[in-house]
Fold this protein.
Amino acid sequence: MTAERHILDSLSSGLLVLDGANRVSFLNRVLAEMLHATPEEWVGRDAEELAVVMARFAQPLAAPRFAWPDSFGSRDIEWRDAETLRYFREDSAPLVAEGSRAAGNGRVIAYHDVSHEKAVDRMKSEFISVASHELRTPMTSIKGSVDLILSGFAGETSPEMQELLEIAQKSCDRLVRLVNDILDLSKIEAGQLKLNLERLDVTEIAVRAICAVKPLADKSNVRLRVDRPQPLPIVEADPDRIEQAITNLLSNAVKFSPPKGDVVVELSSDENWVQCAVSDQGVGIAEKDLHRIFGKFQQLSEGRRRGGTGLGLAITRGLIDEHRGSIWVESRVGVGTKFIFRLPVAVPPTTGAPELAGKVAKP
Amino acid sequence: MKLTRVMVVEDDTDIQKVIRMSLKMRGVGEIVVVDSGTECIERLARFTPDVILLDVMMPHVDGYETCRRIKQNPATREIPVVFLTARVQKADRERGMKLGALGYLTKPFDPMTLHDQILALFPEASGRKEEKGTSAKQ
């Protein structure tokens, strides 16, 4: 046995190497033990044969996958062996041969045990869910009482009292938004967001989002409109979550727009993507701040002043990522900002639905 | 349509008061407040409300179990149940609706519109044939 073999067998992760003809050229001891086999039993056999055996353990979350559309792939799989359930992160990359990574060289796939991280994520998520409930109970009493006093139900209030109560009301509403956002973000980060996927036209969702934001726009004297030069191809997405993403972008755009400014939702597409861009004519974002705009609690001072929670863009990015889309921002100080996201066009129904991450729940 | 008799099942006394005032403000004449699922079931033998506003997180018998018992009993199964709860996750809402609730409203709620939101859940009030759960708007 070579020294390299000893090293690779000593790893705590499972390791699999496939050659250019998709045959097993190497399998380390950890992975062999996961399969109740020896490495020798598998070397030289077809990867498809191995996939069938692995799928017995890896169901139901996701069967192992040895090829990705991209060069590199990573995802979490559930590994059930008798009564034991573990989680593995399956990382796949083209094999380096003669100094280059090429698809024809084969692939190297590693299986890292992430059961502990999953357990911690679950605990964190449960804690946030309980904390969210516990916070909502006193907030209900505070908000309810303040709203009732402001309505005049409990008698007349002086202008000073009115002003102070309005401050309390506004702060309470902000606290509610913050709790909602923290709950959403924790679910996204723990990979526990369940998407109810539907085949849909993003135009309808954009119109719904515009209706939701219209009262805020009217109050700020900002005009909203949708530009869609051509009909869009269908995407497979969760309508509520995409509406949430567009609403977040629109609310931000309205908040940062000057009076009589225009906020525009531009919808476009090509054969692979549906693109949605939300642009405003607001103050813009300095180039030095652009890199942190999607971070948590990374509000620029203007955002804080306007009552944001500092989590909206982090949530929006998380929601788009969950749909295997991408999001970015373009901005010029004094001219305006444009947030753009893309969602993959759905595969026609006859050829099967696109395979999203294993955490996706069908309705 | 008008709400005249409402049963509130809520274990937090401050929230009980806010709900009571909110409904009273909108002219609901008879408001019975109980603080547990068990008491709710007992009182339903003597009081038939237009709607039951039901919290979920309560000690001993929670709101889901209370709803299940209400819907299991032929004498009470026709009484509309609306959850009013701090449990805001989609799975919680689906669980509540599957138990036969008329609607699912979340806390914190707006006391100025609570009455109208409950009313809007009734098919006869909105002209809809089938009702779905909804959230209280902030």
Q: What stands out?
A: The CA atoms of residues 303 and 310 of chain A lie 8 Å apart. Chain A has three domains: 3-113, 119-189, 198-351. The domain at 3-113 of chain A is CATH 3.30.450.20 (Beta-Lactamase). The first strand of chain A starts at residue 14 and ends at 18.
